[in-house]
Amino acid sequence: MGRERFQKTGLKPAWSVFPELEPVEGISTPSIQVKTRKRARSQKVDHSTAATQNIKATTISFSTIHQYGELYINFLKARKKTFIDQLGWNLPQTEGMEFDQYDTPQCRWVVIHEFGEVLGGVRLSPTTASCGVYSYMLRDAQKGILENIPSDVLFFDAPVDERTWEASRLFLASDLPAQRRQSVQAVLMDALSQSAREQGAVSVIGIVPYVWSRWLRRLNLSAVAVGPKFSIDGTTSQAALFNIGAKLH
Prior knowledge:
This protein is of the alpha+beta class and 249 residues long. The protein has helices at 3-9, 38-43, 71-86, 137-142, 178-198, 215-218, and strands spanning 21-22, 56-60, 93-94, 97-98, 108-114, 117-126, 164-172, 203-209, 222-225, 230-232, 235-243.
């Protein structure tokens, strides 16, 4: 989908709301390697800077929703603004909130916010999840029960493993100023990794835009492609596997 089409429709392109992810050259297998780089250390975002001092990362579960007021509601509203209003995806919605069959008590929702405004977030689901006919997004796509995601989304059988969680609905607010995006991205990915580790995960699998991210290296995160490229509503995407087993600092 070209920029001209987005200008005509009024929809925001995917690159305006997703973290800028960039493919790792020459990797075609699900093997994971984490290497410490001097360059990575020198370019790592400083979370103590003014750009992030007021930003909070909150992980919400069904048992803790009541502790955070309207934060979960605002998170679902931010998802609706991102995925439905801006990207034009055909997803369930009600009362200004986006949701689907994977928003269950088995999930964790990581919300990045500042003074009540949601700046970004992601949903984490265990790959052992089960709710009726559904499990988790990638596995259900592979089973052929999701319309918009191809069944050959992965190079291998979708994992069912307590140590692997799925990340979905990953986004950043499209109206974030350019000078703040990298800092907010760093907070989001750190919070995603920490939340997954707290659930016992050592890796996270999920669908991301095909354009991956060099800044992942600055956070000492390693990711590899684990599926072919495919398109969803004009956005080229790919399944990726992230190693979050340990922090390298």
